């Protein structure tokens, strides 16, 4: 996989109550990341290993559909997101401040 593509796969970390709970609990550390809509599991794994220099155990991906919202008589839709839950191997820790 090309380095340019791997740099475009990860968009942002997910900062929610559920993501914080998952990161702090459990035997294996997990992190939630918003990824590109066309990203595959191997691409997410390679991108996390390249950017953060950690060993990834597994990757789970989910598609979250955007909610339909109304403003007066107009309806719209929020953006659809693709979220990747990345499990790190035992003893690995992810630090967002030390990204290369």
UniProtKB/TrEMBL annotation:
One of its GO terms (biological process) is translation. It holds the Pfam family Ribosomal_L23. The keyword Nucleotide-binding does not apply. GO terms for molecular function: rRNA binding; structural constituent of ribosome. The keyword RNA-binding applies. SUPFAM superfamilies: Ribosomal proteins S24e, L23 and L15e. Keywords: Ribonucleoprotein, Ribosomal protein, RNA-binding, rRNA-binding. Signal peptide: none annotated. One of its GO terms (cellular component) is ribosome. One of the early assembly proteins it binds 23S rRNA. One of the proteins that surrounds the polypeptide exit tunnel on the outside of the ribosome. Forms the main docking site for trigger factor binding to the ribosome. HAMAP family: Ribosomal_uL23_B. Part of the 50S ribosomal subunit. Contacts protein L29, and trigger factor when it is bound to the ribosome. Belongs to the universal ribosomal protein uL23 family. This is Large ribosomal subunit protein uL23. The lineage of its organism: Bacteria, Pseudomonadati, Pseudomonadota, Betaproteobacteria, Burkholderiales.
């Amino acid at each position: 996989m090309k380095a340019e593509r791997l740099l475009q796969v990860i968009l942002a970390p997910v900062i929610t109550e559920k993501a914080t709970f998952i990161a702090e609990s459990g035997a294996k550390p997990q992190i939630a990341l918003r990824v590109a809509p066309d990203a595959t599991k191997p691409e997410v794994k390679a991108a996390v290993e390249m950017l953060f220099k950690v060993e990834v155990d597994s990757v789970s991906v989910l598609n979250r559909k955007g909610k339909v919202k109304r403003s007066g008589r107009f309806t719209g839709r929020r953006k659809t997101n693709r979220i990747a839950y990345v499990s790190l191997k035992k003893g690995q820790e992810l630090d967002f401040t030390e990204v290369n």
